[in-house]
């Protein structure tokens, strides 16, 4: 069975020093509520996509301190002996709720809420943010790309453009955003994503002639393979590719264009294929695509898109700019009370929030964030306003709900994203800069 390392030190030092001070001063056991949200979107984002929940839950199972980690913390005097003793038995025992993967979210949406003691919940900040900031950014970029593709498949080919482990996570997040496959085999194995890929220019250059290379590829992969046709002369390559596939007993599956004017090239190649009678042979394009390039290819006879660098870097927005803030804590009498920052441009709104979305005529209208009540009171209010509740429970009393992990959960997340994205008003799908898809309304209810 695969053993993966502890996630406990994937954290900023000040999480540990805060816990150390809190424990020394008798405050570490205070019950607290932390929220993950973003204060603002970049101008080019009208909505963002929740992704990373499964990775968080997998990592939470391994968020425990081993002997070597504790020795490092002690030897470097990062924390004192009381904290070392606390960390020896650390296991998160609180609750985590949030937006399920695939759900779209808005500015201030509480996409993850962590409830537990200060010491337990504080330690999770960096790990949670590092996962969510990356995965949400990639899923959001992927969503824009699949919108631009208008139903044509988008395929992840970004493994070589980012850290090797980030590439695996990016492939999964892209799947949530609507992608249909990945070139990364580790992502295929780990998450059950369809693996794709055939050959690069190096394979063609290995042989004395392009025809020899095509024959060799078809011999091992069959006529339905995809042949890269722009190593030398595209027109000659297309003719050779079709002929060699037929000589092997079938019609060529697809050709790939990776350079030049892709729009003009696609039209020329489509006409040539049709003139050769290869009407079933498809055209896939690559070459540093983003959502704008994909939209620009909308009128071209392209059947699928291979996306690399721009996908795994969030198409220019590599982080979701999420923050993790304390919004409520026990007072000296043990009563939970809201707390909030007043800092200029970095203020927060206190209190545990319940999130719902008002939907009228199958179109989302408003994000409702309700404070001052329990879940039952919030759900009653949502029903009165015609809103659907957005949050789900991922961890209860430290017990992880594993139904949010695995291949079936990933498939549900992809469908959930299509459903929630389809609820958004039409202007939310535009690729141009503009306002957030729907406004957020804060409501305080007195129990």
Tell me what the structure shows.
It is built from 16 helices and 18 strands. The chain has helices at residues 13-24, 53-61, 67-75, 81-88, 118-122, 125-149, 164-176, 185-191, 201-206, 210-221, 234-247, 262-275, 291-296, 309-312, 375-385, 407-423; strands at 31-38, 48-49, 95-98, 104-105, 112-117, 154-156, 226-228, 254-257, 282-285, 304-307, 322-330, 336-338, 354-360, 363-371, 387-389, 392-396, 399-400, 440-444. A seven-stranded antiparallel sheet has the order 12-11-1-5-3-16-17. The protein has a five-stranded parallel sheet with strand order 6-10-9-8-7. The protein is elongated, with a radius of gyration of 25 Å. 43% of the residues are buried.
Quickly list its features.
single chain; 447 residues; alpha/beta; seven-stranded antiparallel beta sheet; five-stranded parallel beta sheet; 38% helix
Helices and strands in order, then pairings?
Elements: H1 13-24, E1 31-38, E2 48-49, H2 53-61, H3 67-75, H4 81-88, E3 95-98, E4 104-105, E5 112-117, H5 118-122, H6 125-149, E6 154-156, H7 164-176, H8 185-191, H9 201-206, H10 210-221, E7 226-228, H11 234-247, E8 254-257, H12 262-275, E9 282-285, H13 291-296, E10 304-307, H14 309-312, E11 322-330, E12 336-338, E13 354-360, E14 363-371, H15 375-385, E15 387-389, E16 392-396, E17 399-400, H16 407-423, E18 440-444
Parallel strand pairs: 6-10, 7-8, 8-9, 9-10, 14-18
Antiparallel strand pairs: 1-5, 1-11, 2-4, 3-5, 3-16, 11-12, 13-14, 13-15, 16-17
Helix pairs in contact: 2-6, 3-4, 6-7, 7-8, 10-11, 11-12
């Amino acid at each position: 069975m695969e053993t993966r390392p502890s996630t406990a030190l994937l954290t900023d030092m000040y999480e540990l020093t805060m816990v150390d001070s809190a424990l020394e001063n008798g405050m570490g056991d205070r019950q607290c509520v932390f929220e993950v949200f973003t204060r603002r979107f970049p101008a080019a984002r009208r909505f963002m996509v929740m992704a990373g929940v499964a990775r968080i839950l997998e990592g939470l199972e391994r968020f425990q301190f081993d002997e070597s980690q504790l020795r490092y913390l002690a030897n470097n005097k990062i924390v004192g002996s009381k904290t070392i003793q606390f960390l020896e038995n650390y296991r998160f025992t609180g609750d985590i709720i949030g937006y399920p993967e695939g759900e779209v979210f808005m500015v201030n949406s509480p996409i993850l809420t962590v409830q537990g003691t200060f010491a337990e919940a504080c330690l999770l900040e960096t790990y949670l943010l590092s996962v969510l900031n990356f995965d949400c950014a990639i899923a959001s970029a992927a969503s824009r790309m699949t919108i631009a593709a208008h139903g044509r498949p988008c395929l992840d080919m970004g493994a070589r453009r980012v850290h090797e482990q980030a590439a695996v996570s990016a492939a999964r997040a892209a799947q949530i955003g609507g992608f249909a496959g990945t070139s990364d085999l580790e992502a295929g194995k780990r998450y059950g994503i369809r693996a794709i890929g055939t050959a690069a220019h190096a394979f063609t250059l290995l042989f004395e002639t392009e025809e020899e290379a095509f024959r060799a590829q078809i011999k091992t992969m069959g006529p339905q393979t995809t042949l890269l046709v722009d190593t030398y002369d595209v027109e000659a390559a297309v003719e050779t590719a079709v002929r060699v596939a037929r000589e092997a007993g079938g019609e060529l599956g697809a050709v790939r264009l990776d350079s030049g004017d892709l729009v003009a090239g696609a039209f020329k190649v489509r006409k040539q294929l049709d003139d050769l009678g290869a009407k079933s042979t498809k055209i896939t394009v690559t070459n540093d695509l983003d959502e704008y390039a994909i939209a620009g290819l909308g009128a071209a006879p392209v059947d699928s898109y291979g996306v690399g660098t721009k996908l795994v870097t969030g198409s220019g927005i590599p982080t979701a700019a999420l923050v993790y803030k304390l919004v409520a804590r026990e007072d000296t009498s043990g009563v939970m009370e809201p707390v909030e920052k007043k800092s200029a441009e970095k203020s927060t709104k206190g209190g545990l929030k319940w999130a719902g979305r008002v939907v009228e005529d199958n179109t989302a209208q408003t994000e409702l964030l309700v404070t001052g009540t329990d879940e039952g009171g919030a759900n009653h209010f949502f029903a009165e306003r015609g809103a659907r509740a957005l949050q789900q429970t991922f961890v209860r009393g430290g017990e992880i709900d594993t139904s949010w992990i695995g291949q079936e959960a990933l498939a549900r997340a992809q469908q959930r994203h299509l459903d929630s994205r389809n609820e958004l008003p039409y202007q939310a799908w535009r690729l141009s800069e503009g306002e957030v898809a729907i406004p957020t309304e804060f409501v305080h209810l007195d129990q």
